[in-house]
Design a protein that fits this description.
The structure holds two protein chains of two kinds. Chain A is of the alpha/beta class. Chain A has nine helices and ten strands. Chain B is globular, with a radius of gyration of 23 Å. The chains are: A alpha/beta, B mainly alpha.
Protein backbone atom coordinates (compact mmCIF):
# COMPACT_ATOMS: atom_id res chain seq x y z
CA UNK A 1 0.00 0.00 0.00
CA UNK A 2 1.21 3.47 -0.90
CA UNK A 3 -0.10 6.13 1.42
CA UNK A 4 0.37 9.87 0.91
CA UNK A 5 -0.57 12.20 3.76
CA UNK A 6 -0.82 15.96 3.49
CA UNK A 7 2.11 16.46 1.13
CA UNK A 8 2.87 20.09 0.37
CA UNK A 9 5.59 21.52 -1.84
CA UNK A 10 6.40 25.05 -2.95
CA UNK A 11 9.05 26.42 -5.29
CA UNK A 12 9.90 29.85 -3.95
CA UNK A 13 6.59 31.62 -3.41
CA UNK A 14 4.79 29.28 -5.83
CA UNK A 15 2.87 26.44 -4.12
CA UNK A 16 2.64 23.34 -6.35
CA UNK A 17 1.27 20.72 -3.95
CA UNK A 18 -1.11 22.05 -1.29
CA UNK A 19 -1.78 19.00 0.87
CA UNK A 20 -2.11 15.86 -1.24
CA UNK A 21 -3.73 12.79 0.36
CA UNK A 22 -3.93 9.52 -1.54
CA UNK A 23 -4.01 5.77 -0.96
CA UNK A 24 -2.92 3.27 -3.60
CA UNK A 25 -3.93 -0.33 -2.78
CA UNK A 26 -1.48 -3.16 -3.51
CA UNK A 27 -1.82 -4.70 -6.96
CA UNK A 28 -4.00 -1.91 -8.36
CA UNK A 29 -3.50 0.51 -11.24
CA UNK A 30 -4.04 4.04 -10.00
CA UNK A 31 -3.97 6.81 -12.57
CA UNK A 32 -3.37 10.42 -11.59
CA UNK A 33 -4.98 12.82 -14.01
CA UNK A 34 -4.97 16.57 -14.11
CA UNK A 35 -4.14 19.58 -16.21
CA UNK A 36 -0.63 20.33 -17.40
CA UNK A 37 1.30 22.23 -14.74
CA UNK A 38 -1.03 20.89 -12.04
CA UNK A 39 1.78 19.22 -10.09
CA UNK A 40 1.42 15.60 -11.29
CA UNK A 41 5.09 15.09 -12.16
CA UNK A 42 6.20 16.87 -8.97
CA UNK A 43 3.90 14.57 -7.01
CA UNK A 44 5.37 11.52 -8.73
CA UNK A 45 8.90 12.71 -7.88
CA UNK A 46 7.86 12.76 -4.21
CA UNK A 47 6.75 9.12 -4.45
CA UNK A 48 10.11 8.25 -6.07
CA UNK A 49 12.09 10.07 -3.37
CA UNK A 50 13.57 12.46 -5.95
CA UNK A 51 11.99 15.41 -4.11
CA UNK A 52 11.29 16.00 -0.44
CA UNK A 53 8.02 17.57 0.67
CA UNK A 54 7.88 20.78 2.68
CA UNK A 55 5.33 19.00 4.89
CA UNK A 56 3.46 15.69 4.95
CA UNK A 57 4.71 12.16 4.37
CA UNK A 58 4.80 9.30 1.90
CA UNK A 59 4.57 5.74 3.18
CA UNK A 60 5.48 2.75 1.03
CA UNK A 61 4.41 -0.50 2.67
CA UNK A 62 4.31 1.30 6.02
CA UNK A 63 7.83 2.76 5.63
CA UNK A 64 8.00 6.55 5.63
CA UNK A 65 10.24 7.24 2.63
CA UNK A 66 10.23 10.99 3.15
CA UNK A 67 12.51 10.48 6.16
CA UNK A 68 14.88 8.04 4.45
CA UNK A 69 18.27 8.80 2.95
CA UNK A 70 21.15 6.94 1.35
CA UNK A 71 21.15 3.16 1.60
CA UNK A 72 17.80 2.97 3.43
CA UNK A 73 16.10 4.90 0.61
CA UNK A 74 17.88 2.75 -1.98
CA UNK A 75 16.46 -0.37 -0.34
CA UNK A 76 12.93 0.99 -0.95
CA UNK A 77 13.83 2.03 -4.50
CA UNK A 78 15.00 -1.50 -5.25
CA UNK A 79 11.29 -2.39 -5.18
CA UNK A 80 10.51 0.23 -7.86
CA UNK A 81 10.35 0.22 -11.61
CA UNK A 82 9.95 3.58 -13.33
CA UNK A 83 8.89 4.48 -16.85
CA UNK A 84 9.89 8.10 -17.43
CA UNK A 85 8.05 10.47 -19.75
CA UNK A 86 10.75 10.38 -22.44
CA UNK A 87 11.80 6.83 -21.63
CA UNK A 88 15.13 7.95 -20.06
CA UNK A 89 16.91 5.09 -21.80
CA UNK A 90 20.70 5.34 -21.58
CA UNK A 91 21.60 6.49 -25.06
CA UNK A 92 25.15 5.12 -24.93
CA UNK A 93 23.78 1.58 -24.42
CA UNK A 94 21.82 -0.62 -26.81
CA UNK A 95 18.23 -1.51 -25.98
CA UNK A 96 19.33 -4.92 -24.67
CA UNK A 97 22.13 -3.35 -22.61
CA UNK A 98 19.57 -0.93 -21.14
CA UNK A 99 17.63 -3.90 -19.80
CA UNK A 100 20.77 -5.72 -18.72
CA UNK A 101 22.18 -2.69 -16.88
CA UNK A 102 20.07 -2.80 -13.66
CA UNK A 103 20.41 -6.60 -13.54
CA UNK A 104 24.20 -6.42 -13.96
CA UNK A 105 24.58 -3.68 -11.36
CA UNK A 106 22.03 -4.75 -8.75
CA UNK A 107 21.79 -8.54 -8.87
CA UNK A 108 24.12 -11.52 -8.63
CA UNK A 109 22.73 -13.09 -11.82
CA UNK A 110 25.16 -14.74 -14.23
CA UNK A 111 25.66 -13.42 -17.77
CA UNK A 112 23.54 -16.24 -19.18
CA UNK A 113 20.73 -15.56 -16.71
CA UNK A 114 20.83 -11.84 -17.52
CA UNK A 115 20.74 -12.56 -21.27
CA UNK A 116 17.72 -14.78 -20.72
CA UNK A 117 15.91 -12.15 -18.63
CA UNK A 118 16.67 -9.48 -21.24
CA UNK A 119 15.36 -11.68 -24.06
CA UNK A 120 12.21 -12.45 -22.05
CA UNK A 121 11.76 -8.75 -21.22
CA UNK A 122 12.08 -7.58 -24.81
CA UNK A 123 9.88 -10.45 -26.02
CA UNK A 124 7.19 -9.44 -23.52
CA UNK A 125 6.85 -6.03 -25.18
CA UNK A 126 7.07 -7.48 -28.69
CA UNK A 127 10.57 -6.20 -29.43
CA UNK A 128 12.66 -9.36 -29.43
CA UNK A 129 14.56 -8.20 -32.51
CA UNK A 130 15.62 -4.67 -31.48
CA UNK A 131 18.05 -5.63 -28.70
CA UNK A 132 21.15 -4.68 -30.69
CA UNK A 133 19.83 -1.26 -31.67
CA UNK A 134 20.54 1.98 -29.81
CA UNK A 135 17.55 3.98 -28.48
CA UNK A 136 18.16 6.66 -31.13
CA UNK A 137 17.74 4.03 -33.85
CA UNK A 138 14.20 2.96 -32.89
CA UNK A 139 10.86 4.79 -33.11
CA UNK A 140 9.24 6.72 -30.26
CA UNK A 141 6.71 3.95 -29.62
CA UNK A 142 9.45 1.32 -29.51
CA UNK A 143 11.48 3.44 -27.07
CA UNK A 144 8.47 3.59 -24.73
CA UNK A 145 8.10 -0.18 -24.92
CA UNK A 146 11.80 -0.71 -24.23
CA UNK A 147 11.45 1.67 -21.27
CA UNK A 148 8.53 -0.42 -19.97
CA UNK A 149 10.57 -3.60 -20.46
CA UNK A 150 13.50 -2.04 -18.53
CA UNK A 151 11.21 -0.95 -15.69
CA UNK A 152 9.85 -4.50 -15.37
CA UNK A 153 13.06 -6.48 -15.88
CA UNK A 154 13.95 -6.42 -12.17
CA UNK A 155 10.44 -7.72 -11.35
CA UNK A 156 9.51 -4.71 -9.17
CA UNK A 157 6.60 -4.62 -6.74
CA UNK A 158 5.64 -1.05 -7.69
CA UNK A 159 5.85 0.49 -11.15
CA UNK A 160 5.53 4.23 -11.76
CA UNK A 161 4.57 5.47 -15.22
CA UNK A 162 5.09 9.16 -15.97
CA UNK A 163 2.91 9.93 -18.99
CA UNK A 164 4.00 6.77 -20.81
CA UNK A 165 2.00 7.57 -23.95
CA UNK A 166 2.70 11.28 -24.40
CA UNK A 167 3.47 12.17 -28.01
CA UNK A 168 2.24 8.87 -29.46
CA UNK A 169 -0.53 8.41 -32.03
CA UNK A 170 -3.92 7.03 -30.83
CA UNK A 171 -3.17 3.52 -32.08
CA UNK A 172 0.12 3.40 -30.19
CA UNK A 173 -1.55 4.90 -27.10
CA UNK A 174 -4.01 1.98 -27.05
CA UNK A 175 -1.22 -0.50 -27.80
CA UNK A 176 0.85 0.75 -24.84
CA UNK A 177 -2.16 0.83 -22.53
CA UNK A 178 -3.10 -2.71 -23.60
CA UNK A 179 0.48 -3.80 -22.97
CA UNK A 180 0.50 -2.24 -19.48
CA UNK A 181 -2.81 -3.91 -18.65
CA UNK A 182 -1.62 -7.28 -19.92
CA UNK A 183 1.71 -7.08 -18.07
CA UNK A 184 -0.10 -5.97 -14.92
CA UNK A 185 -2.43 -8.98 -15.07
CA UNK A 186 0.54 -11.28 -15.58
CA UNK A 187 2.97 -9.77 -13.05
CA UNK A 188 0.53 -8.25 -10.50
CA UNK A 189 2.60 -5.18 -9.64
CA UNK A 190 1.15 -2.03 -8.07
CA UNK A 191 1.04 0.71 -10.72
CA UNK A 192 0.89 4.46 -10.32
CA UNK A 193 0.46 6.24 -13.61
CA UNK A 194 0.41 9.91 -14.46
CA UNK A 195 -1.54 10.50 -17.65
CA UNK A 196 -3.92 12.78 -19.47
CA UNK A 197 -5.08 10.25 -22.01
CA UNK A 198 -8.86 10.68 -21.73
CA UNK A 199 -10.87 8.46 -22.30
CA UNK A 200 -8.30 5.67 -22.86
CA UNK A 201 -7.18 5.49 -19.21
CA UNK A 202 -10.72 4.60 -18.12
CA UNK A 203 -10.12 1.20 -19.73
CA UNK A 204 -7.06 0.33 -17.67
CA UNK A 205 -7.39 2.18 -14.35
CA UNK A 206 -8.67 0.50 -11.22
CA UNK A 207 -8.74 3.89 -9.58
CA UNK A 208 -8.37 7.45 -10.84
CA UNK A 209 -7.30 10.50 -8.82
CA UNK A 210 -7.76 13.99 -10.18
CA UNK A 211 -5.04 16.43 -9.09
CA UNK A 212 -6.06 20.03 -9.49
CA UNK A 213 -4.11 23.06 -8.30
CA UNK A 214 -2.07 20.96 -5.90
CA UNK A 215 -4.92 19.00 -4.34
CA UNK A 216 -6.69 15.70 -5.07
CA UNK A 217 -10.22 16.87 -5.84
CA UNK A 218 -11.77 13.51 -6.71
CA UNK A 219 -10.70 9.88 -6.40
CA UNK A 220 -12.47 6.65 -7.32
CA UNK A 221 -12.99 3.97 -9.96
CA UNK A 222 -13.41 5.00 -13.59
CA UNK A 223 -17.22 4.93 -13.44
CA UNK A 224 -17.28 7.20 -10.39
CA UNK A 225 -14.94 9.71 -12.01
CA UNK A 226 -16.92 9.69 -15.26
CA UNK A 227 -20.16 10.33 -13.33
CA UNK A 228 -18.59 12.89 -11.00
CA UNK A 229 -20.63 15.98 -10.22
CA UNK A 230 -17.45 17.98 -9.69
CA UNK A 231 -17.34 20.62 -12.47
CA UNK A 232 -13.49 20.61 -12.48
CA UNK A 233 -13.48 16.85 -13.17
CA UNK A 234 -16.18 17.14 -15.80
CA UNK A 235 -14.42 20.01 -17.55
CA UNK A 236 -11.19 17.99 -17.67
CA UNK A 237 -12.64 14.70 -18.91
CA UNK A 238 -14.73 16.48 -21.54
CA UNK A 239 -11.83 18.65 -22.57
CA UNK A 240 -13.91 21.80 -22.33
CA UNK A 241 -11.96 25.00 -22.94
CA UNK A 242 -11.61 27.52 -20.13
CA UNK A 243 -14.12 30.37 -20.08
CA UNK A 244 -12.47 33.58 -21.31
CA UNK A 245 -12.55 36.47 -18.90
CA UNK B 1 1.44 37.04 4.15
CA UNK B 2 2.28 40.19 2.22
CA UNK B 3 5.61 41.99 2.55
CA UNK B 4 6.00 45.76 2.41
CA UNK B 5 7.90 47.04 -0.63
CA UNK B 6 11.44 48.16 0.17
CA UNK B 7 12.29 51.87 0.20
CA UNK B 8 13.87 52.75 -3.17
CA UNK B 9 17.21 53.53 -1.60
CA UNK B 10 17.49 49.99 -0.21
CA UNK B 11 16.66 48.19 -3.48
CA UNK B 12 20.28 48.11 -4.78
CA UNK B 13 21.44 46.89 -1.37
CA UNK B 14 18.79 44.16 -1.47
CA UNK B 15 19.95 43.11 -4.95
CA UNK B 16 23.58 43.06 -3.79
CA UNK B 17 22.62 40.90 -0.80
CA UNK B 18 20.73 38.45 -3.01
CA UNK B 19 23.66 38.25 -5.41
CA UNK B 20 26.12 37.65 -2.58
CA UNK B 21 23.96 34.99 -0.93
CA UNK B 22 23.52 33.34 -4.34
CA UNK B 23 27.31 33.15 -4.71
CA UNK B 24 27.69 31.65 -1.21
CA UNK B 25 24.99 29.03 -1.93
CA UNK B 26 26.67 28.13 -5.26
CA UNK B 27 30.07 27.81 -3.62
CA UNK B 28 28.57 25.60 -0.91
CA UNK B 29 26.95 23.39 -3.54
CA UNK B 30 30.19 23.29 -5.52
CA UNK B 31 32.14 22.20 -2.43
CA UNK B 32 29.54 19.63 -1.40
CA UNK B 33 29.66 18.17 -4.90
CA UNK B 34 33.44 17.72 -4.62
CA UNK B 35 33.16 16.14 -1.16
CA UNK B 36 30.53 13.70 -2.43
CA UNK B 37 32.73 12.84 -5.41
CA UNK B 38 35.71 12.16 -3.12
CA UNK B 39 33.54 10.05 -0.80
CA UNK B 40 32.33 8.03 -3.80
CA UNK B 41 35.89 7.51 -5.08
CA UNK B 42 36.95 6.33 -1.62
CA UNK B 43 34.14 3.80 -1.25
CA UNK B 44 33.74 0.56 -3.22
CA UNK B 45 32.67 -0.68 -5.71
CA UNK B 46 34.98 0.86 -8.30
CA UNK B 47 33.47 1.04 -11.80
CA UNK B 48 36.47 -0.01 -13.87
CA UNK B 49 34.63 -0.09 -17.20
CA UNK B 50 33.34 3.48 -16.74
CA UNK B 51 36.87 4.57 -15.73
CA UNK B 52 38.42 3.07 -18.89
CA UNK B 53 35.69 4.71 -21.01
CA UNK B 54 36.53 8.07 -19.45
CA UNK B 55 40.27 7.61 -20.06
CA UNK B 56 39.40 7.09 -23.72
CA UNK B 57 36.93 10.01 -23.72
CA UNK B 58 39.17 12.55 -21.95
CA UNK B 59 42.63 11.31 -22.85
CA UNK B 60 42.91 9.19 -25.96
CA UNK B 61 40.49 11.29 -28.03
CA UNK B 62 42.42 14.46 -27.10
CA UNK B 63 45.69 13.03 -28.38
CA UNK B 64 45.68 14.66 -31.81
CA UNK B 65 44.94 18.16 -30.52
CA UNK B 66 47.65 17.76 -27.84
CA UNK B 67 50.26 16.64 -30.38
CA UNK B 68 49.37 19.48 -32.77
CA UNK B 69 49.31 22.27 -30.20
CA UNK B 70 52.39 20.90 -28.44
CA UNK B 71 54.40 20.83 -31.67
CA UNK B 72 53.45 24.36 -32.73
CA UNK B 73 53.88 25.80 -29.24
CA UNK B 74 57.42 24.39 -29.16
CA UNK B 75 58.12 25.73 -32.65
CA UNK B 76 56.88 29.22 -31.80
CA UNK B 77 58.87 29.16 -28.56
CA UNK B 78 61.97 27.98 -30.41
CA UNK B 79 61.68 30.80 -32.91
CA UNK B 80 60.86 33.64 -30.51
CA UNK B 81 63.31 32.62 -27.80
CA UNK B 82 66.08 32.15 -30.37
CA UNK B 83 65.48 35.67 -31.74
CA UNK B 84 65.54 37.13 -28.21
CA UNK B 85 68.60 35.17 -27.05
CA UNK B 86 70.56 35.95 -30.21
CA UNK B 87 70.39 39.67 -29.27
CA UNK B 88 72.49 38.81 -26.23
CA UNK B 89 74.60 36.20 -27.96
CA UNK B 90 73.11 33.51 -25.73
CA UNK B 91 71.55 31.19 -28.33
CA UNK B 92 73.13 28.24 -26.52
CA UNK B 93 70.44 28.55 -23.83
CA UNK B 94 67.60 27.92 -26.30
CA UNK B 95 67.20 24.27 -25.18
CA UNK B 96 66.76 25.00 -21.44
CA UNK B 97 64.60 28.08 -22.15
CA UNK B 98 62.18 26.05 -24.31
CA UNK B 99 62.21 23.05 -21.96
CA UNK B 100 61.74 25.05 -18.74
CA UNK B 101 58.93 27.16 -20.25
CA UNK B 102 57.15 24.03 -21.43
CA UNK B 103 57.74 21.78 -18.44
CA UNK B 104 56.99 24.32 -15.69
CA UNK B 105 54.27 26.47 -17.29
CA UNK B 106 53.12 26.12 -20.86
CA UNK B 107 52.85 22.34 -21.00
CA UNK B 108 50.51 21.87 -18.03
CA UNK B 109 48.49 25.04 -18.74
CA UNK B 110 48.05 24.71 -22.48
CA UNK B 111 47.43 20.95 -22.37
CA UNK B 112 44.78 21.53 -19.68
CA UNK B 113 43.16 24.33 -21.70
CA UNK B 114 43.10 22.16 -24.82
CA UNK B 115 41.60 19.16 -23.01
CA UNK B 116 39.05 21.48 -21.38
CA UNK B 117 37.98 22.79 -24.78
CA UNK B 118 37.72 19.35 -26.32
CA UNK B 119 36.74 16.90 -23.58
CA UNK B 120 35.56 19.17 -20.74
CA UNK B 121 32.86 20.79 -22.84
CA UNK B 122 31.74 17.39 -24.16
CA UNK B 123 31.65 16.03 -20.60
CA UNK B 124 29.37 18.86 -19.44
CA UNK B 125 27.12 18.50 -22.49
CA UNK B 126 26.87 14.72 -22.08
CA UNK B 127 26.00 14.84 -18.38
CA UNK B 128 23.71 17.84 -18.99
CA UNK B 129 21.76 15.94 -21.63
CA UNK B 130 21.55 12.94 -19.29
CA UNK B 131 20.11 15.30 -16.66
CA UNK B 132 17.45 16.90 -18.88
CA UNK B 133 16.42 13.56 -20.42
CA UNK B 134 16.00 12.10 -16.90
CA UNK B 135 18.76 9.49 -17.39
CA UNK B 136 20.37 10.62 -14.11
CA UNK B 137 17.00 10.30 -12.35
CA UNK B 138 16.69 6.83 -13.91
CA UNK B 139 20.01 5.84 -12.32
CA UNK B 140 18.89 7.26 -8.96
CA UNK B 141 15.57 5.38 -8.91
CA UNK B 142 17.39 2.17 -9.87
CA UNK B 143 19.12 2.69 -6.49
CA UNK B 144 22.39 3.34 -8.33
CA UNK B 145 24.54 6.31 -7.34
CA UNK B 146 25.05 8.59 -10.40
CA UNK B 147 28.29 9.89 -8.85
CA UNK B 148 29.73 6.39 -9.06
CA UNK B 149 28.99 6.08 -12.79
CA UNK B 150 29.51 9.64 -14.03
CA UNK B 151 31.56 11.79 -11.66
CA UNK B 152 34.06 9.50 -9.90
CA UNK B 153 35.34 7.80 -13.10
CA UNK B 154 35.71 11.20 -14.81
CA UNK B 155 37.72 12.67 -11.92
CA UNK B 156 39.99 9.64 -11.67
CA UNK B 157 40.46 9.67 -15.45
CA UNK B 158 41.36 13.37 -15.21
CA UNK B 159 44.01 12.59 -12.57
CA UNK B 160 45.50 9.90 -14.82
CA UNK B 161 45.22 11.53 -18.24
CA UNK B 162 46.15 15.17 -17.57
CA UNK B 163 49.75 14.40 -16.47
CA UNK B 164 50.13 11.99 -19.41
CA UNK B 165 48.76 14.55 -21.89
CA UNK B 166 51.09 17.16 -20.39
CA UNK B 167 54.11 14.87 -20.69
CA UNK B 168 53.27 14.30 -24.36
CA UNK B 169 52.75 18.02 -24.90
CA UNK B 170 56.16 18.75 -23.31
CA UNK B 171 58.04 16.12 -25.34
CA UNK B 172 56.45 17.13 -28.65
CA UNK B 173 56.99 20.81 -27.80
CA UNK B 174 60.69 20.25 -27.05
CA UNK B 175 61.06 18.53 -30.42
CA UNK B 176 59.15 21.41 -32.04
CA UNK B 177 61.71 23.81 -30.55
CA UNK B 178 64.49 21.48 -31.75
CA UNK B 179 63.10 21.52 -35.32
CA UNK B 180 63.17 25.31 -35.45
CA UNK B 181 66.32 25.98 -33.37
CA UNK B 182 68.53 23.16 -34.65
CA UNK B 183 67.22 22.10 -38.05
CA UNK B 184 66.07 25.53 -39.26
CA UNK B 185 68.25 28.11 -37.48
CA UNK B 186 71.44 26.07 -37.24
CA UNK B 187 72.03 25.66 -33.48
CA UNK B 188 74.02 22.53 -32.69
CA UNK B 189 72.06 19.49 -31.53
CA UNK B 190 74.49 18.84 -28.68
CA UNK B 191 74.10 22.38 -27.36
CA UNK B 192 70.29 22.23 -27.52
CA UNK B 193 70.00 18.98 -25.54
CA UNK B 194 73.20 19.32 -23.52
CA UNK B 195 72.27 22.64 -21.93
CA UNK B 196 68.78 21.30 -21.33
CA UNK B 197 70.23 18.43 -19.26
CA UNK B 198 72.29 20.93 -17.25
CA UNK B 199 69.48 23.32 -16.38
CA UNK B 200 66.34 21.18 -16.14
CA UNK B 201 66.09 19.12 -12.96
CA UNK B 202 63.55 16.88 -11.26
CA UNK B 203 61.99 19.77 -9.31
CA UNK B 204 60.89 21.40 -12.58
CA UNK B 205 59.37 18.16 -13.79
CA UNK B 206 57.56 17.64 -10.48
CA UNK B 207 56.22 21.21 -10.57
CA UNK B 208 54.70 20.48 -13.98
CA UNK B 209 53.42 17.14 -12.77
CA UNK B 210 51.63 18.53 -9.71
CA UNK B 211 50.14 21.31 -11.79
CA UNK B 212 48.78 18.96 -14.44
CA UNK B 213 47.42 16.55 -11.83
CA UNK B 214 45.55 19.33 -10.02
CA UNK B 215 44.26 20.71 -13.34
CA UNK B 216 42.87 17.25 -14.06
CA UNK B 217 40.86 17.43 -10.83
CA UNK B 218 39.76 21.05 -11.35
CA UNK B 219 38.59 20.54 -14.94
CA UNK B 220 36.64 17.34 -14.32
CA UNK B 221 35.17 18.77 -11.09
CA UNK B 222 33.91 21.93 -12.83
CA UNK B 223 32.68 20.16 -15.96
CA UNK B 224 30.81 17.36 -14.18
CA UNK B 225 29.34 19.86 -11.68
CA UNK B 226 28.05 22.11 -14.45
CA UNK B 227 26.56 19.11 -16.27
CA UNK B 228 24.82 17.93 -13.10
CA UNK B 229 23.35 21.37 -12.39
CA UNK B 230 22.26 22.20 -15.90
CA UNK B 231 19.24 24.46 -16.57
CA UNK B 232 16.30 23.60 -18.76
CA UNK B 233 16.38 22.32 -22.32
CA UNK B 234 18.96 22.77 -25.05
CA UNK B 235 19.63 26.36 -24.01
CA UNK B 236 20.42 25.22 -20.47
CA UNK B 237 22.91 22.66 -21.77
CA UNK B 238 24.52 25.24 -24.08
CA UNK B 239 24.85 27.74 -21.22
CA UNK B 240 26.25 25.14 -18.82
CA UNK B 241 28.82 24.03 -21.42
CA UNK B 242 30.01 27.59 -22.01
CA UNK B 243 30.14 28.30 -18.27
CA UNK B 244 32.09 25.08 -17.65
CA UNK B 245 34.75 25.92 -20.25
CA UNK B 246 35.09 29.54 -19.10
CA UNK B 247 35.18 28.69 -15.39
CA UNK B 248 37.59 25.79 -15.84
CA UNK B 249 39.91 27.90 -18.00
CA UNK B 250 39.94 30.77 -15.50
CA UNK B 251 40.53 28.38 -12.60
CA UNK B 252 43.41 26.75 -14.50
CA UNK B 253 45.15 30.12 -14.84
CA UNK B 254 44.45 31.20 -11.25
CA UNK B 255 45.51 27.83 -9.83
CA UNK B 256 48.61 27.88 -12.05
CA UNK B 257 49.69 31.14 -10.42
CA UNK B 258 48.94 29.84 -6.91
CA UNK B 259 50.86 26.60 -7.45
CA UNK B 260 53.63 28.43 -9.30
CA UNK B 261 54.23 30.61 -6.24
CA UNK B 262 53.96 27.71 -3.76
CA UNK B 263 55.98 25.03 -5.51
CA UNK B 264 59.81 25.35 -5.76
Amino acid sequence: MIKVEGVTKSFGAQPVLRGVDLEVPDGSITVIIGRSGGGKSVFLKHLLGLMRPDAGRVLIGGVEVTQLRGRALDRVRERYGVVFQGGALFDSLTCAENLAFPLREKTALTRAQIAERVATGLGRVGLADVGAKYPAEVSGGMRKRVAIARALVTEPEIVFFDEPTTGLDPILVNTIHGLIRELHQRLRFTAVMVSHEIPEIFQIADSIAMLHEGRIVEVGPSAVIQASANPIVQQFIRGEPEART
Amino acid sequence: MTSRPLPRLLVPLDALGRWASGIVVSLGRFGTFFTLALATIASPPFKFRAFVNRIDYIGFRSLLIILLTGAFTGMVLGLQVYITLSRFGSEAFLGPAVALSLIRELGPVLAALMVTGRAGSALTAEIGIMRITEQIDALTVMALNPFRYLVAPSMLAGVVTFPLMTALFDVVGIFGGYLVGVELLGLSRGTYFGEMQTFVDMRDIMTGFWKSLSFGIVVTWVCTYKGFHVGHGAEGVARATTQAVVLASVLILVWDYVLGSLLP
